[in-house]
Amino acid sequence: MTVVYKLNVFKDPEQLNQNVFAAQYAVRGPLAVRAEELRAQLKEKPDSLPFTEIINANIGNPHQMGQIPLTFIRQVLALCQYPALIENAEITQKLFPSDAIARAKELLEETGGIGAYSSSQGVPLVRRDVARFIEERDGFPSDPNHIFLTTGATQAVRMMINLLIARPYHGILLPIPQYPLYTASMALYGGRTVPYYLNEETNWSVSVEELQRAYDAGTAEGTEIRAVVFINPGNPTGSCLNEKAIEDILGFAKRNGVIVIADEVYQANVYDLPFVSFKKVLSRLQTENPNDAWDKVSLISIHSVSKGQLGECGQRGGYMEVTNIPEAAFKQIYKLASIDVCPPVAGQFIVDILVRPPKLGDPSHDLYHKQIKDVHEQLFKQCRQLHSALSSMKYVKCQEPRGAMYLHPRIFFPKKLIETAKAQGAEPDELYCMELLESTGICILPGSGFGQKENEFHIRTTFLAQGEEYLKHYVAGHNKIMEKYE
Amino acid sequence: MTVVYKLNVFKDPEQLNQNVFAAQYAVRGPLAVRAEELRAQLKEKPDSLPFTEIINANIGNPHQMGQIPLTFIRQVLALCQYPALIENAEITQKLFPSDAIARAKELLEETGGIGAYSSSQGVPLVRRDVARFIEERDGFPSDPNHIFLTTGATQAVRMMINLLIARPYHGILLPIPQYPLYTASMALYGGRTVPYYLNEETNWSVSVEELQRAYDAGTAEGTEIRAVVFINPGNPTGSCLNEKAIEDILGFAKRNGVIVIADEVYQANVYDLPFVSFKKVLSRLQTENPNDAWDKVSLISIHSVSKGQLGECGQRGGYMEVTNIPEAAFKQIYKLASIDVCPPVAGQFIVDILVRPPKLGDPSHDLYHKQIKDVHEQLFKQCRQLHSALSSMKYVKCQEPRGAMYLHPRIFFPKKLIETAKAQGAEPDELYCMELLESTGICILPGSGFGQKENEFHIRTTFLAQGEEYLKHYVAGHNKIMEKYE
C-alpha cells in the first residue's frame, strides 16, 4: 500500500516568511538562551561552574534583579483581582490604606472588572488620567482621545511600523546604536532601516546634520523615508536630549516631512539633566509660531510601566499619544489596536497609577514617593558603581551616563581577539560576551546587536544588578579575557 | 518669510499600508462603537432612549455580562500581586485557603514575581503543567518545550499567519462563517483567504469534500495553500466536531500537505457532544499507524483563559502547542515570540490554574468545581433560552447549539428590507443589527462580518446576557423591524 502524503511548507524554511528569518533580536538571543542553560545547570549541580549565580545584565528587567515593586500599585492590583477583599471591610482596612481601596473601587466600577475586555483603545478613565498627566508634565493640552493604552511599549512600535511600511522601499530612520526591537520590527514588516549615527564622543548626542546626511543618503538610494525614531533617554546609550536639541530635531522632521516616533519609556530615569518631552517642545512651537506649520509634524510618543521606578515589565502596560494625526490615519491605528482586542487590563490599571500617583495628604502618598525616591537613588548608585568599574578596566572607555538603565562602553579589543572571533565566524564583541558569561556568569550583550560603526566594538550592560560583589568578578573576568588575547 | 515644510505620509492614506485598510474586524466595528455611544448617552440622559441598558451580545466578554470570576484564580492572583499578604500569615489565613497561598508561593518562587519579564516562551513551570494537562486530557504525551504561552489566543494566530504568509499568492483555508480575527489577520499580512463553507443544515459540519473543493479551487486560481483553520467548538456557529470528522480532516491535511491550525478555545464550552482535540486524534493516528506518515502533519493547537468557565478575557492569557514542527521552523516561531518580549505574567499564572485546578482533597477543590459547574449550567440555560426565543421569531431559523458561546441563526429578510439596505449601501444584516440596536439597545453582529454564502443572511449573538427580560425586548424588537419591511 502506498501512503499518500505531501510535505507542508515547514519542511523547507526558505518557503516561510523570510522577513521573520531576517529579524534579529539580540536582547533575547543566543546569550540570553545560554544564560538560562547555565542557570539550570547551577540549580542541578551548583559546583559544576566557576561561579555561583547568573547576573542578568542583558535585559532591563528590574524585579528579576531584586527591585521591590511599589506597594500602592500592588495593593490596588490585589484588590482589583480579588474584590471580595474590599467587601470584607474590617479585615481589609487593617491590610490596605483607604486610598488603595478607593482607587480599586473606582477602577472596578469604570470597567467590567479586571477580567473583562476593555475597549481596544483602553479604559476611558485611564486615558483621561494619562492626558491630565501629560498636561501637568508639559504645560500644554492633551486629548484623551489621542491616547492609546498598549501592551507595553512593544505593541505601539509594532502598530506604527505595520501602518507605515507599505512597500519594500519604505524606510524609517533609526539611531545607531538602537534598541533592537526597532530593527527587528523593521525586518519583520519588510521595510528598510536607514541608520543615523549618535555621536559617542559628545555623550551620544543627535545632530541635525547627521540626520540630514542619513535622510539624503537613504533618499539617494531610493528609500522613501517615512519616519524617524528617537529613544530619549537613550537605550542603549543612556543619553538625554535637551530642549534645544529636540527643537532642532522637530525642525528637521518638518522640513523633510518625516513622522517622529519618540520612545520616552525612560523619562523618569534621568540623573542630571531634566527630561523634556517631544510633545512639550512641539506644543510650544505650535503655540508660539502658529503660522510656521508645526501642526504638520506628526508625533507618536510612547511610554511604559516597565521602566522608571515601577519596573512592572511582566504586567505589560504602556500608552502612546498621537499628535497631529489626520482622521483617516487615526482610524487605521484604531483598527490595528482593535485586532489585538485590548491590552491587559491589569497593565492599564498600573498605567493609571503611574500617571496618577497618591496625592499629598493621601494615606499612601509618603510611602509611594519614598519608594520612588529610594529606587531612583539605588539605581543611580548602581549606575555610578558600574561606571566606575568599567572606567577602571583595560581597553574600555565609557561615556558619562545621564539616564535610562544602561551603560554602553566602547571596547578596544586586542588584535588577537578580533582575529580569533573572525576565524570562528563571530563578531569580536559576541565572542567577548560569551567568554565573559562562561567564566563569570555575567550576561551582557554585544554592541553588534544594537548597531555600531564598522571596526568599533561596544557592550551594553544594565546597571540593575545590586551590590558591588559582582563588579569585582566582572573586572577580573574582563581583565582575564583581555590578557588571554593581548 | 516662507515656511519650509513637507507633508508626511499620514496626509495621504493611500500611501499607508493598504493591508491595514483592507482588514475588517466586525467584532470591534461600527456596531460596537455605536453601542458605546448609546451607553454614554444613557448615562448622561437616561430617558432619551427607548431602552434602559445596552446588552453587549456582540462579543464573548463574560465578566462584562455579569459572570463571576472563579474565586481560587483571583485569590492566587491577589497574593501574587501583593506578596506582603502571604507574609502576614495570621490575617492571610483567615482570608485565603492554604492551597491558594501555596500556589502563589510556588509561582512567585519560579519567577522573579508577577512584575518581571518571563522567558519569551513562557514560565517553564506553567508549560510543564500545560503539557501534563494535555497528556491527561488526551492520553498521549505532550512536551513542555512544544508549548508557547501567549497573550490570549490572538498572539498565537498572529504569529502563525505572520510566519506562513510570505507572498501575496500564499493562502490559508478558513471556514465560512469564521471568527473575523482570521480574515483580519490574513488581510494584515497580505495573504489570500481561501473559503471553505460549513454546512448549516447539518449543524455547521465540516466535510472533506468541501475542503478538497476549496483547496482545488484555490490552487486552480494560483493560490499556494499552506494551512487550514478549524474553530472547534465553532465560533460563530457553536458546532462541535466528533472524532471521526477530525480523523477525516487530518487525512485531508496529510494528503494535501497543509498545516492544521486548531482553535480550541471553547473546548470547555460543550453541551452534549464531548470535546475531542485535534492533538489527541493525531497522536492516536501516529501511534496506531506508525508507517502512515501522520508525523508529516503539522498541528498548531490554541487555547485561552478568556473562554470556558473562566472568562478571564482582560487578563490576556493563553497557550499554543506545536506538534510535528521541524527545528528550523520552530526557531522562527520562538523568535516571533521573543520580539513580543513575553505574554503578561498574570495571564500565564491563570493558564497554570486553568490546566492545574485544585485537586480533590485541596481546600479549594469543592468551591472551584462548584463554580465551574454553576457557570457551565448557567451558560447552557442562557443558551437554551436564547435558542428558544430565536426559534419563536418570524423569519429566523437556528441550528441546535452544541458548544462555544454563540448562536448564529439564519434570517430570511423580507424583500423590502434587502432593497432598503442596498439603497443605503449597507448589507441587509447590517441594517437589521443597527435598527435592533437603536430600538432595543441589544448589540448583535451581522453575519456578513463572519462570512456567509451569497444571498444568505445571518446574525451572530452571544448567549452571555443573563435573565429572560431582554429576550422579550429582543423578540418584540425583531418582530417590529420585520413588520416594518414586510
Automatic annotation (TrEMBL), chains A, B:
This is Glutamate pyruvate transaminase. Belongs to the class-I pyridoxal-phosphate-dependent aminotransferase family. Alanine aminotransferase subfamily. GO terms for molecular function: pyridoxal phosphate binding; transaminase activity. It comes from the Eukaryota. Keywords: Aminotransferase, Pyridoxal phosphate, Transferase. Its cofactor is pyridoxal 5'-phosphate. It comes from Schizosaccharomyces japonicus (strain yFS275 / FY16936). Homodimer. GO terms for biological process: L-alanine catabolic process. Pfam families: Aminotran_1_2. Residues 97-468 form the Aminotransferase class I/classII large domain. SUPFAM superfamilies: PLP-dependent transferases (SSF53383). The gene is alt1.
